[in-house]
Design a protein that fits this description.
alpha/beta; Rossmann fold; binds adenosine-5'-triphosphate; 11 strands; about 300 residues; binds magnesium ion; 10 helices; about 40% helix
Length: about 300
């Protein structure tokens, strides 16, 4: 006679508890080799989180740090493209997957590296009625594997590029209680600042993640011919006065930065002297000061 769910005592021999604790141990052991873990987040989409992450990774690699990047945007991955490793094949052994190697040997893992075709979307196949919950669970599972089952080796810094919103920050907090802090990206519009200030409150007060500072992206347009700067948005109150979070830098819009991202070369490495690259380096310096001394200001 078949057994019903209620006839099964304990875990029915599946040793679920044992598997979960083994997974937690694996994650802890893997992350023991990481000196600093920093998330890049924003309540708002399309403000430049991934571009800032890719350039921060290049900043630290240029400083001689061993850098890893996790693309935590499972459904809209873009880090593999921005760090030029899209289409690289991954190798693995019994201990896990080896990350792809980007510029200056930045170690990268992204869902993009597991998708065969350019057009292939990430589809979570699950029970229809509970698809939302199922999808969240699968995303958390994937993120845990990205952290625990990748041969990160010894890293000075692991950057985590989050999707828009704060949902994944909560997940990350569960997986990585030692997260050092987050960098928050915004653009100078009242709509963005409103959403971003909510996500800062969520990160700082509810999830108790230190917010290192704010990056104001796409602040102005630098004319490629005459070099003059024109604001891109109407004047808004200073983001840092609204949020009480230190400003790490203001990065102007430079069309060559978008092109560099499309080519898979961080702009900071392509034209280090440009105003956008200098602003990105200033952001990097603020994060570096924070991890060294607990404050973005040296
Ligand atoms: N300062 C900038 N100058 C020029 N282009 C930029 C700048 N910042 C970002 N971009 C470009 O704008 C586009 C959107 O940026 P990005 O993908 O980094 O945003 P995102 O916040 O990660 O988006 P999502 O919410 O979808 O994850 C990209 O093509 C990127 O290269
Ligand atoms: Mg992104």
């Amino acid at each position: 006679m078949p057994k019903r769910y209620r006839d099964i005592t304990g875990d029915g021999g599946s040793n679920v508890a044992g598997q979960v604790s083994a997974q937690a141990e694996r994650l802890k052991a893997r992350m023991a080799g990481v000196r600093h873990a920093i998330a890049v987040m924003s309540g708002k989409g399309g403000v430049g989180k991934s571009a800032i992450t890719a350039n921060l990774a290049a900043y630290f690699a240029r400083e001689g740090w061993r850098v890893g990047v996790v693309d935590a945007d499972i459904n809209g991955p873009s880090i593999a493209k921005m760090l030029g490793v899209r289409g690289h094949s991954l190798s693995l052994d019994a201990g896990g997957v080896f990350p792809a190697l980007g510029p200056l040997d930045i170690r990268v893992i992204s869902m993009d590296l597991f998708l065969k075709e350019d057009q292939t979307p990430v589809v979570w196949d699950g029970p229809q009625a509970e698809t939302f919950v199922w999808r969240g669970t699968m995303e958390m599972h994937t993120l845990r594997e990205f952290l625990a089952d990748v041969h990160w080796g010894e890293l000075d810094i692991l950057l985590i590029d989050l999707p828009p919103g704060t949902d994944r920050l909560a997940t990350l907090n569960d997986l990585l209680p030692d997260l050092h802090g987050s960098v928050v990206v915004t653009i100078p519009s009242a709509v963005s600042q409103l959403i971003v200030s909510k996500s800062i409150t969520m990160a700082r007060d509810l999830l108790r993640t230190p917010v290192i500072g704010l990056v104001e992206n796409m602040t102005a347009y630098v004319c490629p011919t005459c070099g003059t700067t024109h604001p891109l948005f109407a004047p808004t109150p200073q983001a840092e006065t609204l949020t009480g979070v230190p400003l790490l830098g203001r990065v102007p819009f430079d069309p060559r930065m978008a092109l560099a991202g499309d080519k898979g070369v961080p702009f900071i490495l392509e034209d280090a002297a440009s105003p956008a690259a200098q602003a990105l380096a200033q952001v990097g310096e603020g994060v570096l000061n924070f991890v060294n001394s607990g404050s973005p200001v040296s």
